[in-house]
């Protein structure tokens, strides 16, 4: 097995931004390779995920959220795939194994063995483990209980969750799948490649009017990654008994003039009551992960689903990748190949 060099690189927050973070707010620092302590695995990271919630963590986080705030000097973190270099006895891991863990944004990591998930060949490409299809699947099955014949709306449909949610909804038997996105180019890909019947472009007129036209009979299921005006429009378009799965708050999280730590929105409670709409958040859902991985792997091998993602080469390009993700440049998940 290859042995680590004496030093590795990691991405640190250099300064707090005034507004949205930009590449100059980060630094790629050289640091000694960590020494694995008792019960720890030494890993060389191969891939890690870039995700928009980092903006919220940089701004101080949200009370009660499972991820800690980031301060200047801190190393960023996130879902990663690492190659085992050494592992403690009894861990079941061997050098060369691939594991998933949460110490991304660095070349080397020492991670508690019980915080590593060994990867098998259940997915044809190990990078697919860094997708957010599990969140979309949980929202559509365990939270919103999508049924054959439903009309499904996915806001933020070109993101890591939304680019899989449309495909999953179609496989679950949805009769009509509608998405929202930020550009005509992405809208075209949603309908041509990713299972959507219609894609509504944000900023091109009131979203409520567009949704009323795309779903004249209303919607049964919402997977909401955005909040704000789009959540309001979904309430107006909901059929009686509609089920809403609340995943994200991109409308405020990525607002240049906000902090990304609050997501206020005014909803018509009369409509929630009269239509008997249910709203549930989707947070930390490990129970269905095995079920999702098995179905995802089968669908991928059968060619019934794709994993939309962009690979950015080199840890030194990670700050730029985050900037581009926040700016809406990419479709699907964004992964850095270390």
UniProtKB/TrEMBL annotation:
Keywords from the UniProt entry: Oxidoreductase
All copies of domain Enoyl reductase (ER), residue ranges: 19-336
Annotated organism of origin: Actinomadura fibrosa
Lineage: Bacteria, Bacillati, Actinomycetota, Actinomycetes, Streptosporangiales
Protein name: MDR family NADP-dependent oxidoreductase
Keyword Translocase: no
Cited CDD domains: PGDH (cd05288)
